[in-house]
Amino acid sequence: MDKQQQILITMQDYANIHMVPIISREGGRLLQEVTAAAKPVSILEIGTAIGYSTLLLAAAMAPNGKITTIEQDGARLEIASNFLAQAGKLEQVSMIAGDAGEVLPALTGSFDLVFIDAAKGQYLDYLHKVMDKLLPGAVIIADNVLFRGWVLDDSNAPRRFRTIIKRLKAYLDFVTKDKRFKTVVHHTGDGMAVSHYQGRANI
Ligand SMILES: C[S@@+](CC[C@H](N)C(=O)[O-])C[C@H]1O[C@@H](n2cnc3c(N)ncnc32)[C@H](O)[C@@H]1O
């Protein structure tokens, strides 16, 4: 087993013990497949947690790739920074502490891959706020879009999740109907939407 694999296992153990939600194994595999195919050089990740998916992205992106990642929990960001340093990837990652909804409008630069994995009720807001930073052909990957299957059938969903479910449906509705996106919704893990941006550069 190589060093990076060992670090990923240590991160999975840390996430289990400390109850930090990280991408599922299946979801992680799909994330890496899509990233490896796209060979992005400028990635935006929304929702770093302890940097597990950041490391998966870093391993699959172009060798000269860079990742900007946003997380509102400062303690998690600190842990992510330690893990990414151990993996020798910290220099390729720029970490921003704060609420993504506030950070995104002020963000400069353009991106060829965006991974959305923060507040589930805010995905559409995040997407609207990154639209002007997407390069033509950019890939947008959103995790947990089927949210325990309730986005397809909410008859057994607890009341407290209704708003999140409604908003995830609105996200899927947008990326499947807007002509600037070609979207495939994978039933892998908790559901992952992979959208290819066909629009023009807005930058
Ligand atoms: C599911 S976890 C991310 C997991 C990570 N992408 C992975 O797979 O390893 C979601 C993270 O988003 C963060 N988060 C939630 N709302 C946020 C917001 N409005 N702005 C920034 N981060 C947020 C949470 O603190 C949490 O660490």
Short structural summary:
With 203 residues, the chain is of the alpha/beta class.
What does this structure look like?
There is one protein chain. By secondary structure, the protein is of the alpha/beta class. The protein has a domain at 3-140: 3-Layer(aba) Sandwich (Rossmann fold). It contains seven helices and seven strands. It has a seven-stranded mixed beta sheet, sandwiched between helices. Strand 6 (181-186) and strand 7 form a beta hairpin. It is globular. The N and C termini lie far apart (42 Å). The model has no long low-confidence stretch (mean pLDDT 96). The structure holds S-adenosylmethionine (SAM). S-adenosylmethionine is lined by residues 21-23, 47, 49, 52-53, 70-73, 76, 99-101, 117-119. The site of S-adenosylmethionine has 18 residues, from helix 3, strand 2 and helix 5.
SSE diagram, text form:
Blueprint: H1 3-18, H2 25-38, E1 42-46, H3 52-60, E2 66-71, H4 74-86, E3 93-97, H5 100-106, E4 111-116, H6 123-130, E5 134-143, H7 162-177, E6 181-186, E7 192-197
Parallel strand pairs: 1-2, 1-4, 2-3, 4-5
Antiparallel strand pairs: 5-7, 6-7
Helix pairs in contact: 2-3, 5-6
S-adenosylmethionine is lined by residues 21-23, 47, 49, 52-53, 70-73, 76, 99-101, 117-119.
Q: What is the CATH H-level superfamily of the domain at 3-140?
A: Vaccinia Virus protein VP39
- Overall morphology: globular
Q: What is the alpha-carbon Rg in Å?
A: 16 Å
**Overall strand count:** 7
Our count of helices gives 7
Instruction: Extract low-pLDDT stretches.
Output: none
Sheet with the most strands, sense and barrel status: 7 strands, mixed
> How does CATH name the architecture of the domain at 3-140?
3-Layer(aba) Sandwich
Name of the CATH first level of the domain at 3-140: Alpha Beta
Q: How far apart are the first and last residues' alpha carbons, in Å?
A: 42 Å
Question: What is the ordering of alpha helices and beta strands?
Answer: HHEHEHEHEHEHEE
Q: What is the helical fraction, as a range of percent? A: 40-55%
Could you tell me the CATH topology label of the domain at 3-140: Rossmann fold
Q: Work out the strand percent.
A: 15-25%
> Which structural class is indicated by helix and strand composition?
alpha/beta
Q: Could you give the order of strands across the largest sheet? A: 3-2-1-4-5-7-6
Distinct ligands: S-adenosylmethionine
- Mean pLDDT over the residues: 96
